[in-house]
Specification:
Layout lengths: L10 H5 L17 H10 L1 E8 L4 E6 L4 E6 L6 E7 L2 E5 L2 H7 L9 E3 L7 E8 L12 E4 L7 H8 L7 H13 L3 H5 L6 E9 L6 E4 L8 E6 L3 E7 L19 E7 L23
Antiparallel strand pairs: 1-13, 2-12, 3-11, 3-13, 4-5, 4-9, 4-12, 6-7, 7-11, 8-9, 9-10
């Protein structure tokens, strides 16, 4: 759309105001690198789940365990949902995670839960793609800015029903693992961590874009479960998201979820985070 208004005389002054970071990182709980590293060195794999292409699978991670999402056969992006295993109403809050950390997350960042609990659900403890950083297009890996491909947007834009968008995949996975209806499961599906996805905003129009993921077989991102978790991971129908999504035209590959249990002696200084301390009186 063309701009309908002329700039005011003080336009440049208004544009020149300095940016201010909204939330100071020094107010967040400190990332205890040594604690997590001690636990990592003792951990042993205790379970795994293979997520088939253009599908989703769920998995459970007890508090104090690690889980990895691993590329196995080819470059593949995954959409991750997380819930409190004892209360599905508490789930991953991508918007607040984005505000507290950045548009893309990596080692040392946490995945925060929704209000009113607002606490870390999981902490990223290793990321083999941390070398990528920011490229010349302004793109990074593992974003918390996109939502998830869904059949509703696809129907609106393309006029077709496609049932293997990540939203539908996650809905089926949660319905199966929780033994609930699709309608009920869908109410719990939320905005995702786009695992391995390479994204950004165009420099001219600031539109959300995707490009081919740099992930290769053997790469993984690893998390520490701060509370008991149920997770669901969808292998995006866009494959590496370098061309299209919400269709069957792109090569897709499975992803592997591995669960690891550390030696309990390495976690003597760790406690699960408590729910947020706000009184919830809201001024009344």
């Amino acid at each position: 759309m063309p701009k309908l208004n002329q700039p005011p005389v003080d336009a440049e002054q208004r544009r020149s105001e300095k940016p201010i970071i909204c939330y100071s990182l020094d107010k967040l709980p400190v990332y205890d690198h040594d604690l997590y590293e001690r636990a990592r060195t003792s951990m042993k794999k205790c379970d795994e789940t293979i997520v088939a292409p253009r599908d989703a699978s769920s998995f459970n991670v007890p508090a104090g365990h690690f889980f990895r999402i691993v590329s196995t056969e080819g470059p593949q992006v995954g959409d991750l949902n997380l819930w409190n295993a004892n209360d599905l109403s508490e789930h991953f809050f991508s918007g607040k995670t984005r505000q507290l950390h950045a548009s893309h997350v990596s080692t040392g960042d946490r995945l925060w839960s929704n209000l009113p609990n607002l606490r870390p659900l999981a902490t990223i403890t290793h990321d083999t793609l941390d070398w990528y950083g920011w490229d010349e297009d302004g793109a990074g890996v593992h974003d918390v800015i996109g939502t998830r491909c869904d059949p509703y947007t696809n129907s609106m834009l393309n006029g077709v029903d496609y049932h293997h968008c990540c939203h539908s995949n996650l809905t089926r996975a949660l319905a199966s693992t929780e033994n609930i209806s699709l309608d009920e499961a869908e109410t719990h599906i939320h905005d995702v961590l786009n695992v391995f996805m390479c994204t950004g905003f165009t420099l001219d129009t600031h539109q959300y874009f995707m490009k081919a993921s740099p992930v290769r077989p053997g790469d993984f991102i690893e998390f520490f479960a701060e509370i008991d978790l149920v997770g669901a991971l969808s292998t995006c129908p866009g494959g590496n998201c370098g061309s299209s999504h919400s269709d069957d035209s792109t090569a897709c590959y499975p992803l592997l979820v591995e669960i690891y249990k550390p030696n309990e002696s390495t976690l003597v200084d760790w406690q699960p985070p408590k729910a947020n301390g706000y009184t919830r009186t809201h001024g009344v």
